[in-house]
Amino acid sequence: MNYELRIIMIPISDNIQSWKKPIITYWLIGINLGIFCWELKLDASNQLSSFVNSWGIIPEQTNAAITNAIFYNSAAWIVVFWRLISLPLALFLHSSFSQILGNLIFLWVFGKTIERVLGQQRYLLIYLVAGIFTGIVQIFMEPKLSVAVIGANGAIASILGAYIMKFPQAKIYSILPLIIVFIPVEIPAFLYLFWWFVQQLFYGIGSLNISGGVANLGYWGQFAGLVTGAAFMRMVQRR
């Protein structure tokens, strides 16, 4: 599998019509782009590594802080609190151009429809809660991981899970770029469930200069986000 395979299927819209403006989706995309531009500025001044290591999720440090607070020093709960703050903040950090581009494309195509279905408050709630939950899963599944985990992958996975639960038969308008010819096609939404996991393998393309490296959310974390989104949509449907 190579880089060319990654770009042969690009979602651009779906066939679910609505006149409501996806305000929260606009804001999420804008915030992510704004922070990424700030990351580029920090990268140019060699300050990005310190920034990411301060605000990214580092499971080893978080687990060490919790252990120290429970068994040795109760004052260490301040450190635990500081590390837990990184859970929501890490959602808005990205380590490469390919990661932020892939996340924002999926957020736009699937997120705007889910926002219209759930409403602004519940949509933002599931985005943040699922993103934080997947970070917690990452901490427990890889307790010895010593590099920062950043990105909105878990939150986007929850949006995709909610979408598939609500619109399993929806068609996604996509383009297949072949050299200089862009071929428009309709692809079943369910296929993008598989494609989402495939594209995670290519998120290192266009990486920023972060010493020590960063890690993408593990597949178990993304699966947790997917299940969270689907379960939330199922609960809304039943109510």
UniProtKB/TrEMBL annotation:
Domain of life assignment: Bacteria
**One Gene Ontology term, aspect cellular component:** membrane
Entry keyword annotation includes Protease: yes
Q: InterPro entries, alphabetically?
A: Peptidase_S54_rhomboid_dom, Rhomboid-like_sf, Rhomboid_protease_S54
In this protein, which residues make up the domain named Peptidase S54 rhomboid?
81-236
What are this entry's molecular-function GO terms?
Answer: serine-type endopeptidase activity
Keywords, A to Z, come to: Hydrolase, Membrane, Protease, Transmembrane, Transmembrane helix
Transmembrane domains' residue ranges: 23-42, 63-85, 91-111, 123-141, 147-165, 172-197, 217-236
UniProt membrane topology term: Multi-pass membrane protein
Among its keywords, does the record have Membrane?
Answer: yes
- Put simply, this protein is called Rhomboid family intramembrane serine protease
UniProt organism field:
Trichormus variabilis SAG 1403-4b
